Amino acid sequence: MYDLEVLKTMRKMPVFSLSDIAKITKNRNYAKVLLARMVKGKTICRLMRDKYSLHDNPLIFSPFLNNPSYISCASALSYHGLISQIPNSIFLMTTKRSKKINNLIYHKTKNFFGFNSTKISGVNTFIAEPEKAFIDSIGIHPLHIIIDALPELDSKKLLNYAKKCNELKRIAFLLKKELNVSKKYIYLDPLSKKSGVRDEKWKLIMNC
Q1: Residue span of the structural domain in which 39 resides
Q2: Full-prediction pTM beyond 0.85?
Q3: Spatial distance between the Cα atoms of 165 and 137, rounded to a whole number of angstroms
Q4: Is the domain of 70 the same as that of 22?
Q5: Which of 47, 68, 192, 207 could be 51's S-S partner, Cβ–Cβ 3.0 to 4.6 Å?
Q6: Within this chain, do residues 86 and 17 fall inside the same structural domain, yes or no?
């Protein structure tokens, strides 16, 4: 019966450690035995050293394996139903160094904003707003992967985020918003071929 109470508490947590469970059981040795038994019985998953979860959905636990971070890019756009392609990996933004944990890909960013706490299966996780996910994707995904999301985005919010993230030129072009932009030429898609026609008006090299 006591184990059921612990399990109930685990269900509310995206990720937990031995110390977290020891605080509940008031007995570290018992907590260690309990976790080992639950992992063996496949009641919980051992995600990495001293990181466990009752949930098998990476959208729930991934932000907490490299904290602070939030789900973004194609993963967030797919979650919001804005692109048809479902990525095999989960893409996240973090203030820490970039790293990969299995199929979880964390990208370091200076622009750590534009995300919300979101409940999935009753558990709070962190997912980018659609507009921020679109901007975070630039340089991580080819534009053709994310472009279908553009018509569904809030253009005012998108431009505001683009300005903060130094992506105003690309976003203004995609939205066909005439704004004052720098005279330095940049590639429209940072991941595409390094050649293309120079657009004098937008100061972009059209490489996609």
Answers
A1: 2-55
A2: yes
A3: 12
A4: no
A5: 47
A6: no
